[in-house]
Amino acid sequence: MEGKGRLAMVEDAVEYHLFLIPDEARDTDGHRESLQKYIEQIMTQFAPILVPYIWQNQPFNLKYKPAKGGVPAHMYGMTKFGDNIEDEWFIVYIIKQITKTFPELVARSLGSPASGSWPSRQFRIEDNDGEFLLIEAADFLPKWLDPDNSANRVFFHRGELCIIPVPRKSERIPWLPTTPPTIQQALSIISAHPEAILASESVQAAVDRRISGYPEKIGASLHRAHCFLPAGIVAVLKQRPRLVSAAVQAFYLRDPIDLRACRVFKTFLPETRIMASVTFTKCLYAQLVQQKFVPDRRSGYGLPPPSHPRYRAHELGMKLAHGFEILCSKCSPHFSDSRKSLVTASPLWASFLESLRRNDYFKGLMEGSAQYQERLEMAKNYFQLSIHRPESSLAMSPGEEILTLLETLPFDIAELKTEEADLPPEDDDQWLDLSPDQLDQLLQDAAGRKVSQPGPQKEEQQNCDVGQVSDSMKAFISKVSTHKGAELPRDPSEAPITFDADSFLNYFDKILGTKPQESDSDDQDEDDLECLDSDDDLGLEAQESESLKGALGSLKSYMAQMDQELAHTCMGKSFSTRKQLDPPSQTANDNSDEEDSGAGDCTVEAVDVDLNLVSNILESYSSQAGLAGPASNLLHSMGVRLPDNADHHSSQ
After folding, report:
1. pTM, two decimal places
2. Under a CB-based contact definition with an 8 Å cutoff, are residues 320 and 280 in contact?
3. pLDDT (tens digit, 9 = 90+) per residue, 60-106?
4. Same domain, residue pair 46 and 175
5. In a domain, 609, yes or no
6. Is there a contact between 324 and 395 (Cβ–Cβ < 8 Å)?
7. Which of 195, 272, 330, 516 could form a disulfide with 231 if both were Cys (CB 3.0 to 4.6 A apart)?
């Protein structure tokens, strides 16, 4: 069954594993019981932020996983996050907080199993793009760390990102294996040397920057909108707010077969529609809004004119109703009743409910009140999905869950209509439209750069020195390029400081000359021979220097002749030049007089390399019209920010 499950999950999923630090030998039954208690403690500890969270596809969950091969028994979970990448980073935050709350635990996480079998990795957070934690901190990782040697080296412990280093060839550390460590070796290293394997502050900061703001960030990722919905859907969403994600996904991924069930609605009749407030995630709301869809005339879900003030609410309600109808059409209304009482029948439910009460989950609400029952139903749903997950043959589908709620949940349409007057205001959806400045801000935030205020930024752009363009380009040309690419000039404040003592001493030896002879040497013959050798060396160096000067002189003379020949051609006029009072060299003038008597009387105009370079780059930058292009990409990579073309804007 496990193998089939791995083949079924293709991508956009994250797996996570929690290991106990090995401290003593444990029997199998005792270890299993201990891990089950940890699962209960973790899920109740983080229930206040996990229960109300709306997941795109699957929630955060944990279960016991027995030992297999060289991997000890541990806690395991898998979540398919789909199109909402924030679910993946929220899980990273949860994992970090778990290891911080329970220091005896080590977290290991995987992405899509298609990238490799999980027993070969210690801590690995990756999806179909690879190890996205390492990708996020790629600019700050040590040079030796790459995808080929990162197996069983990266993990979370005590809330900190840790990397087991590779021993250098010149040093031998007894506790560092020369080959990639196994999971047992990695756990032993974590237990014995937790401080020595901490990742650098820059790597930690890169990951922390991505998950900063949680759990407060959860509220910012939600969007509340008014929808004109059937009363049954309103009642279901009051009890199961998370079912909105399943309905949006059903509509978003619909096919012609699904739409057959929406020709004539059988479960959610359009005559029962009322106005209600629905909470989406921003990802779900964007998926629903951006879908262009015209309902079947037979469905009864007509839309008012686009100019109608409630057109958006009618359109959202129509799309959401189609999603719920598709979910219910995929299951039989007479499914087994044995699936309906799985939660309260579980032996873990009583202890879980008691743990929620100890953690003040119900916030002092009176037992039996409407708000108490609402939070209780959310806790049951959370328990079933995250802790007590039944076998796939017994698990309820979203459609079966909706039909069960409709059968067991009484609701009064007239009472729901009275709530229309007290609906909370809906959120502004201007975040769907990004201006160029906002897009630049998002890109800069993603790159981890400090964004200056608008005023100082404009002032800095107005004071831009075009000479910086020429200097940066010269620095770029002087860099060494290899098969890995060209090295870009770095900001001096960001450049690493390195010091090689041997190179430093050798450099001064070349400046000051050879080392003095020892004073106690009395072998005059050897000194004479050394002096003769030194004289020979000086003679050879003098000959090489004269030869080099001759070659450079010939090259300059040749280039001067070419300049004079091209001076009055179209090619010469295409470059910006500067007047020179004196010819570049007397040799060049003599040669030119011999070949062309008229050319020597003309003043030699040398090409202004810096001016041509800057003017060509500015022309290329202006032709991009604010879009991405080779000039802006090259300048941005070198830290040069050019202001907008004011002349171009004024002409428009």
Report:
1. 0.67
2. no
3. 988 899 988 888 888 988 888 989 999 999 999 999 999 999 998 98
4. yes
5. no
6. no
7. 272
